[in-house]
Design a protein that fits this description.
The protein has 167 residues and is of the alpha+beta class. The chain has a domain of 114 residues: 2-Layer Sandwich (Beta Polymerase, domain 2), CATH 3.30.460. 36% of the residues lie in helices and 19% in strands. The chain contains six helices and six strands, in the order H-H-H-E-E-H-E-E-E-H-H-E. A six-stranded mixed β-sheet has the order 3-4-5-2-1-6. Helix 3 packs across helix 4. The longest helix is centred in the middle third of the chain and has 17 residues.
Length: 167
C-alpha cells in the first residue's frame, strides 16, 4: 500500500516533483553497512581477510610495527585489531585513505566510523569486526594497546598472507 499525497498542501511544483512511491532517504538502509554487520556474525575468517588487507596496506605505505591482535574472546563487539605506527600526519592519512579504498573496492566492505583523522595522532577506523588503529609513535607508546589487550593473541602477519614481512 502506498502513501497518498495531499496535493492541496503542496505548491504546484512540489506536487509534480514528489512521487508517493519514492522512499525517503532516511528510510533507505545502506546495504554495505548492513552486509558488514551481518558478516560479523559469520565467523572470523572474513575478519581475518579484512585485517590482512589493512595490514598489507599499512606495510605497503611504510607503516611500522604493524600487528594484528585477535581479541575475539574478550569482547563481543569486534574480532581483531590492526595496529600500525606512522611517522607523519601525511603518512597516517595516506594509510587511512588507502585502507578505506582497498577494503571498499576489493573486499566490498565500507567503514562504519572514523575518529581522530583531523588530529592525526591516533586514527581509528571501524569496520565492524575489525578496528584499525593508526598511531604516531608517541601516542602508540602512551596508550600501549598491545599491553592493554595483552590477553589477545598476536597473529603473525605471514600467517594471514601479508607479504613483505621481515623476520
Amino acid at each position: 500500500m502506498t502513501e497518498q499525497t495531499n496535493e492541496q498542501d503542496m505548491s504546484p511544483s512540489t506536487a509534480a516533483e514528489t512521487k508517493p512511491d519514492t522512499p525517503k532517504p532516511a528510510a533507505v538502509k545502506d546495504p554495505m553497512v548492513t552486509a558488514s554487520r551481518a558478516i560479523r556474525h559469520q565467523g572470523t575468517e572474513y575478519s581475518r581477510k579484512l585485517a590482512a588487507a589493512a595490514a598489507q596496506v599499512a606495510l605497503d605505505n611504510k607503516g611500522e610495527d604493524v600487528m594484528v591482535l585477535d581479541i575475539c574472546g574478550q569482547t563481543a563487539e569486534f574480532d581483531l585489531f590492526v595496529l600500525a605506527t606512522g611517522s607523519s600526519r601525511r603518512q597516517l592519512h595516506a594509510i587511512s585513505e588507502q585502507i578505506d579504498d582497498v577494503l571498499e573496492k576489493e573486499m566490498g566492505d565500507r567503514r562504519m566510523g572514523i575518529e581522530g583523522y583531523q588530529e592525526s595522532r591516533w586514527i581509528v577506523l571501524d569496520y565492524g569486526s575489525v578496528v584499525v588503529h593508526l598511531f604516531d609513535e608517541d601516542t602508540r607508546e602512551y596508550y600501549d594497546l598491545e599491553t592493554l589487550w595483552a590477553d589477545g593473541k598476536r597473529i603473525p602477519l605471514d600467517e594471514l598472507g601479508v607479504k613483505g614481512v621481515e623476520g
